[in-house]
Amino acid sequence: MDLSSAVTATVSTLRRRPADLLPFYFLGTAVPVIARVAMFVALAGVYLHFELTGRLADARDALAELDLTPPDAQDPEAMQAWAESVAPALEPLVSPTAVLLIVAGSLAAVLLAIVTYAAVSAGQLSAVIARLRGERGLTAGIAGVRNRWIAFLGLYVAEFLLWTGASLLGAAAIAAGFLVNPFFGAAVALAVLLVGVVALLFVRVVFAFAPAAVVVDDTGALGAIAGAGGFLRSNPADAAAYLVVAVGALVGIASAASALAFLGAGAIVALASAVVIAPALDVLKTTLYGAHRDAIDPVDPPESRLRDQFFGGARRGWSETSAFVRRTPGLHAFTVAVGVGFGALGWIAVDPLVGAVSTSIESRLVGHIPPAAAVNFFGNNLSVAIATSLAGVALVVPAISSIAFNGFALGATAALEENLTALGAFVAPHGIFEIPALFVSGALGIHLGIVSWRTFRGRLPREAFADALEDAFWILVGVGILIAVAAVIEGFVSPYYWRPFL
User: Fold this and answer.
1) Is 355 helix (H, G, I), strand (E, B) or coil?
2) What is the CA radius of gyration of the chain?
3) What contacts 67, CB < 8 A, 6 or more positions away?
4) Which of 76, 147, 275, 415 has its CA 20 to 30 A from that of 327?
């Protein structure tokens, strides 16, 4: 299959029933939310350790006797004297047990992220090959998570070992060359650079197609590496074309991220990369490899125009969101209780810092550029909503932790605000759209967690879990509409309307 046909098949696959594929890519954005649960558990353990040993009370008492207001940051001597006066009060919080818990939590979070990413990737590529064969993607993806995650983990470990081994071997060769003679060492370094770039590029291309080989050939890591190598030998032009497209996409993403980050709006690029570019590249390479194996039957392009499909999807998303809210009042009440409760906890927790540490909504709005800010607010809040919702798939806990974390952070920020009236005035116009949207995403995460648990226990079939994921896609479309309205208001209205009155 030539590149043009593969691109056409990719676009058709993404446009026809996107809700049967993209939820697994939404799930990819939730991996950090799932992984950080390990760190939250470690921090909770640290807090209990400090509380039960009396260390936290000692630190509170010591801090209460001090003036925590920092001096002028332009005076280094005064800052040093202030830091030296505060340091003894914090000594009770220096504990080997606390350090051990934090280190263990960090390692657990990293391991959890690696395993979760492998499982999610297995689901993504399994859903892709199912869609390319005219089968239901989400059902195949759910099965793929369980049956193929070890193969994907093996691929990641193998590529890491190859890159590490090649780098160490090259470094050793260069070091040996310089021991003989500086000029010889420079020549060795140049040769290692040239050969190393070619070798590592070949490794990257092989491992780019290896995941597609896993799902197309239904094989393990070693079989997938062999299959990807065979594809490169048989179809070097297709592999090179894919490489050009992938590199071009990465360069485009990097350029857009740099430009928008300069304006403070980089979040939308990260979101687009995760839920648009990543699935497009996965479908493209699986199409090329699947055609090589004569193992796919790409779908025909949808008959509706892109514009009609967009507005039809928006209407369905709003309808599905409204229906979900109506049929799950208990989940929404629980979500609100968790968010508000941890908001109050955050307010109370930072009380000793009030006066010494402060935040200011007015200072945060300095240099505010409405269009860029609106885009950034949309990208950031939609990313949070998607991650919170899909993180619930990991048996509810990550979704609840995300709601709690955001509530705690907002409560702490409000307690430290210099001008609480201004903060309330700023939040009110867009908050009536944004806050309910985030609560809906939290309730959706809990709902997905319940469904995944019942599926894991064998009480629901995979088809029911797939239905829940497809519904979640459309509900998040409705949530995105609310967040888009909120972002426009937050960018163009909220920073300004109250200034003449306050």
Assistant:
1) coil
2) 26
3) none
4) 275
Measured between alpha carbons, how far is 341 from 358 in angstroms, rounded to an integer? Answer: 22
Domain ranges of the chain: 3-45+97-292, 306-492
Between the two ends of the chain, the Cα-to-Cα distance in Å is: 65
Whole-number Å distance between alpha carbons of 383 and 388: 8
Rounded to whole angstroms, how far apart are CA atoms 234 and 214?
A: 18
Q: Which of 489, 491, 376 is nearest to 432 (CA)?
A: 489
- pLDDT one digit per residue (tens) for the chain, 502 residues: 788 899 999 999 999 999 999 999 999 999 999 999 999 999 999 999 998 999 888 888 887 777 767 777 677 888 888 788 888 888 888 899 999 999 999 999 999 999 999 999 999 999 999 999 999 999 999 999 999 999 999 999 999 999 999 999 999 999 999 988 888 889 999 999 999 888 888 999 999 999 999 999 999 999 999 999 999 999 999 999 999 999 999 888 878 777 776 666 678 888 999 999 999 999 999 999 999 999 998 888 888 888 999 999 999 999 999 999 999 999 999 999 999 999 999 999 888 777 767 889 999 898 888 998 999 999 999 999 999 999 999 999 999 999 999 999 999 999 999 999 999 999 999 999 999 999 999 999 999 999 999 999 999 999 999 999 999 999 999 999 999 999 999 999 999 999 888 7
**E strand spans, 100-153:** none
* Cβ atoms 134, 299 nearer than 8 A: yes
- Residue among 132, 154, 420, 397 nearest 290 (CA): 132
User: For residue 357, what is the DSSP state?
Assistant: B
| Residues in Cβ contact with 292 at an 8 Å cutoff, skipping those fewer than 6 apart | 1, 231, 234, 235, 238
CA pair distance 300, 282, nearest whole angstrom:
18
Give the integer Cα–Cα distance in Å for 21 and 27.
Answer: 11
Q: What is the per-residue DSSP string for 488-501?
A: HHHHHTTTTTTTTT
Q: What would the two tokens of residue 128 be?
A: 């892709």
Whole-prediction pTM:
0.92
Q: For residues 222 and 240, what is the distance between their CA atoms, to the nearest angstrom?
A: 23
Residue 35 sits at φ, ψ, to 5 deg, of -70, -35
